[in-house]
Write a structure and sequence with these properties.
The complex is a heterodimer of chains A (74) and B (708).
Chain A (H helix, E strand, L loop, with lengths): L11 E7 L2 H9 L7 E7 L6 E5 L2 E5 L1 H4 L2 E5 L1
Chain B lengths: L5 E6 L5 H9 L3 E5 L6 E10 L2 E7 L11 H10 L10 E7 L3 H13 L4 E6 L1 H6 L2 E3 L1 H8 L2 E4 L8 H14 L13 H11 L4 H10 L8 H13 L4 H23 E3 H5 L7 H9 L4 H20 L1 H21 L4 H18 L2 H17 L1 H15 L7 H6 L4 H6 L7 H10 L9 H11 L5 E2 L3 E2 H27 L10 E3 L7 H35 L5 H12 L5 H15 L1 H13 L6 H10 L5 H9 L9 H11 L12 H13 L4 H11 L3 H25 L1
Parallel strand pairs in B: 1-4, 1-5, 5-6, 6-8
Antiparallel strand pairs in B: 2-3, 3-4, 7-9, 10-11
Helix pairs in contact in B: 3-10, 5-10, 7-8, 13-16, 14-15, 15-23, 16-23, 20-22, 21-22, 21-29, 21-30, 22-30, 23-31, 24-25, 26-27, 27-28, 30-32, 31-32
The chains are: A alpha+beta (74), B alpha/beta (708).
Keywords (chain B): Cell membrane, GTP-binding, Ion transport, Iron, Iron transport, Membrane, Nucleotide-binding, Transmembrane, Transmembrane helix, Transport
Subcellular location (chain B): Cell inner membrane; Cell membrane
Protein name (chain B): Ferrous iron transport protein B
């Protein structure tokens, strides 16, 4: 299963679902909804956390958190 | 003030809520405290119509009504409880138009609580630059609320907002009876039967968030749990499903009310300034270089520039004391006023410039949006030690004072990360340690020597102590991470706001609040201790004190003038209660190289370490010689002879042992009190006190034994 953690900088993806119930509420509230398009824009040094463009703003999260977001490539 | 109309300002972080608050209230602001919570409450007066003033309450920025951290909890405690003294008559939800869907989520939740709400659309220009045109009239009809277009920063649209607020207050729009996502009607009825009539969504909020709401007692919380069990209601599932449902409804509304020009023209999204700046500020190499450079300037300000106002305060207090001693009769009361109370107040005020400088920088970095980038690039490193990217701010603030630093941990969502940050922050060398470091370093580190011919050795030693504190904080965090059990998972899901120019008014308010917290929270205790200390150092058991003057005169017939009164003062101290305490603990501190005189300083320092220098000058009988106090106390201490060895008392071993002890020991009542308030348990201040003091004792013991 492809997750957000698998994206490389500049790559696009579309959110399809979540694997973690507790994190998913926070992610949903921040606008990471199924069907939303995301673009990976930055890595922090050492590749973690990551920054992505979603719903018109920049959101950061840790790699392990990104791994709970399932995506499909666009 | 019971009949004053109150409006709550609600919105996402960075949506322009604070700008709007400043625009509406101008200088009519005041900070207070929310009952039962130690969180700053910012209220202001807004003239809605000529002769009609209403109160505006600024609430912390949130993304959703469901709280994830302590500072977010406050919002549901007010909005969820109509009996709360700060419960508003209506709400203004400030929404960032360039991020409409996410902002409307919060709006829809607030409206469903049954609070009359106005939607203030901010940053419409930003949205239009991105190619989105919003039909706000249509939006108002679709959402069935008053919508006002505003530009909070420039103060445009206030007239329209006034009209919207007046209309809403007058008509008190009927609240939404339907739940966004239906639940069994019996569940809502059961909640209403037991806890009173309320809008369905409010009843549901009570049910789901009862643990975080202070309006419920333990018994009520248990009955909520029973109800959830009875109806097999799972709040986590419901909240997620509700959020998705709300977004679906919002998307439909937005689809009808917003024209997306990008889609029509198939344009590429524009590269913004923020994108360009981020290429440098969160770069894997330059990001750190810039951060270190900013830290360096901050240190310069706190330790170099702040000394000028500090010298002024120091001199002013000394002059006031001299003047008072001159005009007041020589009595115990005068002594208590000058050497006790005023000296104590002066000891607090002297730190104000450093705290102000530090919070100027921190607030500027937060205002511009840069601080989020620091959190972003530091998270990975901090996480290894059981901390969080967000721990960076408290740790940096800890250089000035641990009290505001610990209060700034509230934004850390994970309890374990927050607790560890609170527990280790006092290891950062605060400004109260600086005078102790200065005196002791001057005693044991030669002034002339330099490292590689460039760096002054004393400066290197001072910097080393700050680094030592920082690394010990990281190390302790790492150990705590292994010991403490996590109740919840740590997470780091955070918005990176766009870069903005700083609003200097916010910076000023932030400086004012931090200084106020220090002066009133820490200040109270420091002043109280100074007075107690003065009493213990001035009085002794029985009539021993009274006889001293006579005895000294008899024993030292050659002494006169200043030398005589110094000798008397010194003998008095030895026989005072403080002197007796010092001798009592001497066996325990002997292995660290300390005698009973240092013992007195240690005991008094346990309430507030900044009294060390003052105690030292009392012990070494300096009395009224206030000018150039440090130089004089240095000389006195340098001249002190160790009675056991016949060599100078303050050699390298003792000096470094004391430095290390002060670097690590938990000697600050105000910090412990703050830790208690922030953790709501005596367990954590006790742990903090225990581990830091043990660490200090062991480290000082090792240093003394190795060096001597």
């Amino acid at each position: 299963m492809l997750t957000l953690a698998d994206l490389r900088i500049g790559e696009h993806g579309e959110i399809t679902g979540f694997t973690d119930e507790i994190l998913s509420l926070k992610l949903l509230e921040m606008g990471c909804l199924p069907g939303t398009e995301v673009i990976l824009t930055h890595h922090a040094p050492f590749g973690d956390p990551i920054a992505l463009k979603v719903s018109g703003y920049t959101l950061t999260m840790r790699r392990e958190e990104a791994a709970t977001i399932q995506i499909k490539r666009k | 003030m019971a009949n004053v109309t109150r409006i709550a300002l609600i919105g996402n972080p960075n949506a322009g809520k604070s700008s709007l608050f400043n625009t509406l209230t101008g200088l009519n602001q005041k900070t207070g405290n929310f009952p039962g919570v130690t969180m700053d409450k910012l209220t202001g007066i807004w003239e809605l119509e000529p002769g009609r003033n209403i109160e505006i309450l600024d609430l912390p920025g949130i993304y959703s009504i469901y709280p994830k951290s302590i500072d977010e909890e406050l919002v549901i405690n007010i909005l969820g409880n109509p009996k709360h003294p700060d419960y508003p008559d209506m709400a203004i939800v400030v929404a960032d138009a360039s991020n409409l869907k996410r902002n409307l989520l919060l709006f829809s939740q607030v409206r469903d609580l049954g609070i009359p709400t106005v939607l203030a659309l901010n940053m419409i220009d930003v949205a239009e630059n991105q190619g989105f045109v919003i039909n706000s009239l249509k939006l108002a009809r679709e959402l069935n609320v008053e919508v006002a277009e505003i530009n909070a920063k420039k103060g445009i649209g206030v007239g329209g907002l006034k009209l919207a607020v007046i209309k809403t207050l007058k008509h008190r729009y009927a609240s939404n009876d339907a739940l966004p996502l239906p639940v069994s009607e019996e569940l809502i009825e059961d909640v209403q039967k037991q806890f009173g009539e309320a809008d369905p969504y409010r009843s549901l909020l009570w049910l789901m968030e009862h643990d975080r709401m202070k309006m419920f007692n333990q018994e009520q919380r248990e009955s909520f749990d029973h109800l959830m069990e009875k109806h097999q209601f799972e709040p986590k599932k419901y909240k997620s499903a509700e959020t998705v449902r709300r977004y679906e409804q919002i998307s439909e509304v937005v689809e009808r009310c917003v024209i997306n020009l990008n889609r029509q023209w198939d344009a590429e999204p524009v590269k913004t300034w923020t994108d360009r700046l981020d290429k440098v500020f969160i770069h894997s190499f330059w990001g750190y270089v810039i951060f270190l450079a900013i830290l360096f300037v901050m240190f310069q300000a706190v330790f170099t520039w702040a000394t000028y106002p500090m010298d002024l305060i120091d001199g002013g207090v000394a002059q006031l004391n001299d003047w008072l001693k001159g005009i007041l009769p020589d009595s115990p009361l005068t002594g208590m006023l000058t050497d006790g109370l005023i000296a104590g107040v002066g000891g607090v005020l002297i730190f104000v410039p450093q705290i102000a400088f530090l919070f100027f920088f921190i607030s500027m970095l937060e205002e511009t949006g840069y601080m989020s980038r620091v959190m972003f690039i530091m998270d990975k490193m901090m996480r290894r030690f059981g901390l969080n990217g967000k721990s960076v701010v408290p740790l940096i603030s800890g250089i000035a004072c641990a009290v505001p630093a610990i209060m700034s941990t509230r934004s850390i969502g994970s309890w374990k990360d927050r607790l560890i940050t609170i527990l280790v922050t006092p290891l950062m060398s605060c400004s109260a340690r600086l005078p102790i470091y200065t005196v002791l370093i001057a005693l044991v580190v030669p002034e002339k020597n330099t490292l590689f011919g460039v760096f002054n050795l004393q400066g290197v030693a001072l910097f080393g102590l700050y680094l030592l504190g920082f690394f010990m904080a990281l190390l302790s965090a790492w150990v705590l991470k292994k010991i403490l059990r996590a109740k919840e998972r740590s997470y780091f899901i955070m918005e990176l706001p766009t870069y903005k120019g700083p609003r200097f008014k916010h910076v000023a308010i932030s400086i004012y609040n931090s200084v106020r917290a220090f002066v009133f929270e820490a200040g109270k205790i420091i002043v109280a201790i100074s007075i107690v200390l003065w009493v213990f150092a001035s009085y002794g058991p029985g009539d021993s004190m009274a006889k001293i003057e006579e005895q000294v005169r008899l024993k030292n017939p050659t002494l006169s003038g200043v030398d005589l009164s110094n000798k008397i003062a010194s003998e008095k101290l030895e026989n005072s209660y403080a002197g007796h305490f010092g001798k009592l603990i001497e066996p325990a501190i002997k292995p660290l190289g300390y005698d009973w005189k240092i013992g007195i300083a240690l005991i008094t320092s346990f309430a507030a370490r900044e009294v060390f220098v003052g105690t030292m000058s009392t012990i070494y009988s300096l009395g009224g010689e206030v000018d150039n106090e440090n130089a004089t106390i240095k000389n006195r201490m340098r001249a002190e002879i160790n009675p056991d060895t016949g060599k100078p008392m303050y050699d390298a071993a003792l000096g470094f042992s004391l430095l290390i002890f002060y670097a690590f020991a938990m000697q600050c009542m105000s910090t412990l009190a703050t830790t208690y308030r922030e953790t709501k348990s005596w367990k954590y201040p006790l742990i903090q006190f225990g581990y830091m003091t043990t660490l200090a004792y062991l480290a000082a013991f090792l240093v003394y034994q190795i060096l001597s």
